[in-house]
Each structure stands twice: as structure tokens, then as C-alpha cells.
């Protein structure tokens, strides 16, 4: 009889401590979505979560009641076991042995392992065990209400603090939920645009200008003192809607011209020139967007630490970061090569982001604020532009330059050697 009560108390203690940590760890957005399903389980979850403080208090009360009953019967069991074995020890040793054995059993069976398990599978277990949790919640409801009232009274009178707190969804919880949804999508399935936009929006606040800018080597420009016919020819050749206007070099950009302005039949480029904003590489794109909207500008020139032109960024670039690639009939499809050609061997375009390669191919390439792309990683190490046919070793990463110009690396073969 005593052993049955002990086992029951341990199971209940594990349940109460597990549900407490599951309720705290469960994704609040996931619970809200489950509560909208309009079935029996959703109504139970609604009642459980309508007052989080009382639910947690009820679980704590249940856990303590179970442990008190367990301690009473476990003490008798250990004492009988010691008497049966003929162990005669002083009274204080008797109490110490009972405490150590009982505490060890509780920690292993009802505290440590259940909390780890319930924390890992919080979303699932809080649904599966919602009904028994609700029954105990109702059983201890008035006792938990009484203790919460005492706690609120003490907090308000002596600490001038409000006891009740409103539980809001955090940005991290939203991010975790969207990541879970993305992980359930098969590779050949198309991700819902709403989920993709939410994920982009969560990452948006941490993206810097240099992460999405058009790099200096890809900027198409026309000199300020060239003719309008030269500018018109460049528009026709590139199909761009905007052309950057510089004076002598790209380090002295003075503005840009929109193709629409050519309908005004300007006599000089300067007469239709629009000004640009200048921003540092490290500025966040959300700040660039605010600046461009406030100044009613469309283009910003991104400057490096020495004041030279590092690249350009437009409002379209920022919008694409949120909503995905926006292509028009003049956009050319630039295919970035990423191919695994053998065990530990890859063929990569150097425009690929290091963060992306680490995430997809688990390469563990060091990431730094000094570069963002694979080409930047190589140049940051060599301090110069490698040429076609060069072999470069950076720790365990062995690069063979397959395609390159005097301005940039384009294609590399990467071999990982431990």
C-alpha cells in the first residue's frame, strides 16, 4: 500500500512540475492558434491560459501536496527497510539518510528528467495533458486564488508593485513559431508568402546596408559631363530605370537620372540630375528606409570606412528584402552556382553569402563583420584579388580559383580537408 502511494505521488509530482515548465516554455502563438480551433481541446486550453498566474500556482500547490505525502510514506518505508536490515544508527543519521534517499529519488524521477522532457516537448504535452491539468487546476483553484491574493497584497502594500502581469507574445516566440512552420515544408513545396514575409520581417531589423547593396564593381555609371545621347545609349544597353551619375570616378557620385526624365528632352545630364543620400556600410536598412522616405529620395550611396563608394542601395532593394525578389522584364537572371561535386568538395559562386553556405552545407566558415560573401572571406584573408588558377588555403578550406577578373573572384572550387 505504501509503495503504491509513493509511486503515485512521484508520478503526480512529475506531472505538476512538468506542466509548470511546459506552460512557461510553450510557444504562446502556437497555443493561441490551437485555442482558435473551436473544439473541446481548444476550450480546455482557453480556460487553462485565461489566468496564467493561477494555473502555475495550482501546479505548485499540487506538486507540494504530492511531495508532502510522498515524504511521509517514503520516510516510513526507509525506516522499515533499515530496521529490517538491522542497521542501528543514531537518530540524526536516521534523519539524514531518509532525507538524502528521498530527495535523490524525487530529483531524478519528479524534477530533473520530467522538466527536461516537458520543456523539449512543451507544445505537444500541454495539449495531450490539458484535460487532467484542467481538473487539478479546478481542484486547487480557490487555494491558488487565496495565495495569489496574499502575494498581490504584499507586493502592492510593501513593494508598490502590481502583482498581475499581462503576458504578451514576444518577438522570439513569433520567430520560433515561424521557424517551426518553415521546417515542416518539404523541399519541393512552395512556402506560403505570408510565412515568408513574416520571417523576412523578423530578420529585417538586423540587416545592414552592406548586406543587400549593389557592390561597387556592379554599379553602372555615366560621367556628369557626358552627353545626353551617351546616357540614352546606356539606358538602352542596360535596360535599367536609373543610372548613377559620377564625376571623374565612382568615389564621387553626384546623383542619378531616371529614364522617365529623358522624355523631357534635356540638353544636359545636370538638368535632370536627382540627388542621392550617403550612408555608412554599418547602418541598418530600416534606418536607410526611414531616411530615404523622410528625404523623399530613392537611392543611397553606401560609403566604406575611408569615405569611398562601397555600393548603392535603393528603396526597391529594401522592399525586396521584405517581400522577396521583384523582377521586371529587364531583369537578367543571374544564376549563382552552388554544387556539391564530391565528398567535401563544392563549386560555388563567390557572391553566395557565407551565412547561407554555413546554414545549407554546414561548412562552419568563420563569419565576420568584415565580409558577407564567400569572395569577401577569401579577399579578407589574401588582402588582394586572387587570379584564375590560384590556390588559396585558409585553415581547412582549400580554394581553387576557377574564374576571376582583375576586379573580383567569380567562381571557386572548395575542398574541405580536416
From TrEMBL:
- Primary location recorded for the protein, binned into one broad class: membrane
- Topology term for the membrane: Multi-pass membrane protein
Q: One Pfam annotation, family name?
A: CNNM
Q: What is this protein called?
A: Hemolysin family protein
InterPro entries membership:
CBS_dom, CBS_dom_sf, CNNM, FAD-bd_PCMH-like_sf, FAD-bd_PCMH_sub2, Ion_transp-like_CBS, Transptr-assoc_dom
User: Which residues, if any, are the signal sequence?
Assistant: none
Instruction: Provide the species name.
Output: Flavobacterium quisquiliarum
Q: Which UniProt keywords apply?
A: CBS domain, Membrane, Repeat, Transmembrane, Transmembrane helix
Every copy of the CBS domain together lies at: 269-329
User: What residues form the membrane-spanning segments?
Assistant: 6-26, 55-75, 95-118, 139-159
Superkingdom field:
Bacteria
> Where is this chain's protein located in or outside the cell?
Membrane
Amino acid at each position: 500500500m505504501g509503495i503504491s502511494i509513493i509511486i503515485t505521488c512521484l508520478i503526480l509530482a512529475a506531472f505538476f512540475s512538468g506542466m509548470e515548465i511546459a506552460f512557461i516554455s510553450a510557444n504562446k502563438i502556437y497555443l493561441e492558434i490551437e485555442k482558435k480551433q473551436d473544439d473541446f481541446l481548444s476550450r480546455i486550453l482557453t480556460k487553462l491560459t485565461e489566468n496564467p498566474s493561477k494555473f502555475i500556482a495550482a501546479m505548485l500547490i499540487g506538486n507540494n501536496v504530492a511531495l508532502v505525502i510522498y515524504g511521509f510514506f517514503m520516510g516510513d518505508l526507509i525506516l522499515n527497510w533499515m530496521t529490517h536490515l538491522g542497521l542501528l544508527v543514531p537518530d540524526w543519521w536516521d534523519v539524514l539518510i531518509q532525507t538524502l534517499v528521498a530527495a535523490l529519488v524525487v530529483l531524478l524521477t519528479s524534477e530533473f528528467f520530467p522538466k527536461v522532457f516537458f520543456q523539449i516537448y512543451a507544445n505537444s504535452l500541454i495539449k495531450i495533458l490539458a484535460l487532467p491539468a484542467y481538473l487539478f487546476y479546478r481542484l486547487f483553484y480557490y487555494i491558488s486564488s487565496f495565495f495569489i491574493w496574499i502575494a498581490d497584497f504584499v507586493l502592492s502594500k510593501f513593494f508598490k508593485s502590481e502583482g498581475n502581469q499581462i503576458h504578451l507574445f514576444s518577438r522570439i516566440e513569433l520567430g520560433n513559431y515561424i521557424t517551426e512552420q518553415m521546417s515542416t515544408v518539404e523541399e519541393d513545396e512552395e512556402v506560403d508568402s505570408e510565412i515568408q514575409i513574416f520571417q523576412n520581417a523578423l530578420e529585417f531589423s538586423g540587416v545592414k546596408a552592406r548586406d543587400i547593396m549593389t557592390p561597387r564593381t556592379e554599379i553602372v555609371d555615366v560621367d556628369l559631363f557626358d552627353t545626353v545621347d551617351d546616357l540614352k545609349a546606356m539606358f538602352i544597353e542596360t535596360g535599367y530605370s536609373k543610372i548613377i551619375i559620377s564625376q571623374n570616378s565612382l568615389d564621387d557620385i553626384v546623383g542619378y537620372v531616371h529614364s522617365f526624365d529623358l522624355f523631357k528632352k534635356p540638353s544636359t545630364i545636370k538638368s535632370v540630375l536627382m540627388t542621392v543620400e550617403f550612408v555608412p556600410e554599418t547602418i541598418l536598412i530600416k534606418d536607410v528606409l526611414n531616411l530615404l522616405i523622410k528625404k523623399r529620395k530613392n537611392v543611397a550611396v553606401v560609403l566604406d570606412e575611408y569615405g569611398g563608394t562601397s555600393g548603392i542601395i535603393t528603396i526597391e532593394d529594401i522592399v525586396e528584402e521584405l517581400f522577396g525578389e521583384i523582377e521586371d522584364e529587364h531583369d537578367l537572371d543571374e544564376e549563382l552556382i552552388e554544387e556539391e561535386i564530391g565528398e567535401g568538395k563544392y563549386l560555388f559562386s563567390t557572391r553566395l553569402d557565407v551565412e547561407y553556405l554555413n546554414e545549407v552545407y554546414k561548412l562552419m566558415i568563420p563569419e565576420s563583420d568584415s565580409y558577407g560573401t564567400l569572395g569577401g572571406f577569401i579577399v579578407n584573408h589574401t588582402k588582394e584579388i586572387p587570379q584564375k588558377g590560384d590556390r588559396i588555403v585558409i585553415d581547412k578550406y582549400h580554394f581553387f580559383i576557377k574564374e576571376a577578373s582583375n576586379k573580383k573572384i567569380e567562381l571557386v572550387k572548395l575542398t574541405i580537408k580536416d
